[in-house]
Amino acid sequence: MELQDSITTLKGVGPKKAEAFARLGVNTVEDLIFTFPRIYEDRKDIKDIAALKEGEAALFAGAVDAIRTGGFTRGRRSRVLRMLVTDNTGSIEVVFFNAAYLAKTIKRGDRLAFFGKPVMNRDRLQVVHPQFEKEETVQTGILPIYPLTSGVTQREMRRLQKLATPLYGQVESILSEETVRRNNLCDLEYAIRNVHFPEERQHYLEAKYRLVFDEFMALETGLMASKMNERFEGEGTKFLNDGSEEEFIKSLPYPLTRAQQRCVEEITADLISAKPMNRLIQGDVGSGKTVVAQTAMYKAVRSGYQAAMMAPTEILARQHYEGMSRDFAAFGIKTGFLTGSMKAAEKRQVLEEVADGTIQILIGTHAVIQPEVSFRNLGLVITDEQHRFGVSQRIKLKDKGESPNVLVMTATPIPRTLAVVLYGDMDVSVIDEMPPGRMPIVTHCLSGEDARQKCYDFVERQIQQGRQAYVVTPLIDESEAMDARSVTQVYEELAARFARTEMIHGAMKQSEKDAIMARFSAGETDVLVSTVVIEVGINVPNATVMVVENAERFGLAQLHQLRGRVGRGQWQSYCFLINEGRSELAEQRGKIMEASSDGFYIAEEDLKLRGPGEIFGTRQHGLPDMKLADMVRHMDVLNAARDEAKALLEEDPRLARPENGPLKRRVEKLFGEDLTLNL
Ligand code: ADP
Ligand code: MG
Hints:
Elements (H helix, E strand, L loop, with lengths): L14 H9 L5 H5 L5 E5 L14 E15 L6 E8 L4 E7 L4 H4 L5 E6 L1 E4 L2 E5 L2 E4 L6 E5 L8 H11 L12 H6 L5 H9 L4 H25 L18 H7 L7 H14 L6 E6 L5 H14 L3 E5 L3 H16 L5 E4 L5 H12 L5 E4 L13 E6 L7 H8 L6 E6 L5 H8 L3 E5 L10 E6 L1 H16 L3 E5 L14 H11 L3 E4 L5 H12 L5 E4 L12 E6 L7 H8 L10 E6 L4 H12 L3 H12 L24 H17 L9 H11 L8
Parallel strand pairs: 4-7, 10-15, 10-16, 11-13, 11-14, 12-13, 14-15, 17-22, 18-20, 18-21, 19-20, 21-22
Antiparallel strand pairs: 1-9, 2-3, 2-5, 3-4, 5-8, 6-7
């Protein structure tokens, strides 16, 4: 067996299984070896039932004493199966919902082992939906828990991982002996073995350190070898130092905040110098980033250049286009709009006018970076909500011009050290002040049908006062539809109560979505029921209420973004977060949202509750997926790997030496087709 062999060479993997594995990105045995556990469960020993504690997941075993199907949960949707499990020390209740089929497989007197987290229910501990198996087959030790997909079970994954162990020695190291020694790393084979099947926590930690180092080494080498960090030599796009930005600012209906002014000054200084601008604007939702970007775009046109702006959703791109084309028309500037869903003839017209310079400002979605788009002389590129785009997309936009000025905007806070990885030597401007007159948004967390109805009574009063409301529901799978309110369900309910209610979701035709948003913007609709398609950027100042259904399903950072859709005008605004059921976590999250309107603080708290992977996850920032490494927690490893990568590329810029072959292959695999590497 070889590393590059298909996983079908492993016993028990047929074509059907292979398909399921492909969904996990696993095609070869090597891919399987590089599928690392997400977490581990400490099942060192089987616990006495009497020693089980609330909230602490544990392995326990015993005989099934009594078993009973019966009763329905609220809404008569789910049938409950209860059993009593007893060992020498005591008994505990085990509950399964919607699992009447289990009553056929589990019988009184069976000896089973369970793994689950006890919770308190009416003064007694119970375990809901534990994993279970026959007591005699249960594995103990530190058990790896792998990422799965439908058609691949945990047990199967572990079995195959065991089959692959003889190949560990064949995996090539991407680090040289010196690098390993200099950084006190463990041997690669040891690392792979101990990340899959650790005997001690300490071994696992050493193993992880080594593998994280490897990942960062590949990441840093790739980023350094990409165009992202290409140094610019010579004369760049230099805008006129004519104070034209002031003309535009004077035309605004409000003065800029001090923070916005400072931002404009920093940008202007970049624009009028020969070195191309490379700047990130970071500002919380509602801090007024758009107008700062617009000022720079105006200046580009006054200096004889074109400017382009890319936004992550069609709704947001259109909103920018509508606002800006109106503002710029007053100065005789022509603004164009480009999205993928446009009709061919319309698109052709826009492409022609962009190419010959008739369109001076182009706003659009990903369509803007497609190969057929070429500009006459693009001097400024802007990415809005940049965290929604990948590294390669940002670079593609930049490549549309000849060393154009680059501006990216985001409301998602990024630690400085991470920003360096993501943006190279990008300068950062911060808008740390809100436009005046904004009242903090009043936020309430609630649960239960009564509270929910009161919330909609409140919405009704706001509507009577002429305001509008958003109601957001999560995206749900059909399989879990019974646990969460779907967008149609909520829409039907609210449409019966509020005459001017509309619904919007991702599966609709673009023209339909545009029309719905336009009506909401114009105040022709009172209530907009939506999935998260309105999450970023949308600006309708007359909307004062944001209701989030099933708020427990959203991340805090996302709730903060959603809440940022209101409180954009002169009226007091409100946000209601409706949780389904009550849990401690939901309560904690609710408290954070009620107490703070500071995106940085919320992101930090979210980090504590959920762990960093999900917020500063590389995917959110458009980097290739790291399997183990976590940018924030492993900053020291990142820095060490960065130094090594730098030194290596200085000696062998194209990784041409045979000993650097494994690293080169790994980098190419990591970045795939996504990024042009100068290797
Ligand atoms: P974000 O930073 O979230 O992109 P926007 O640029 O959409 O925020 O601005 C939010 C709202 O604030 C818009 O309605 C905008 O017109 C308004 N706004 C921006 N700057 C100011 C200001 N200096 N004074 C008053 N209102 C402002
Ligand atoms: Mg914005």
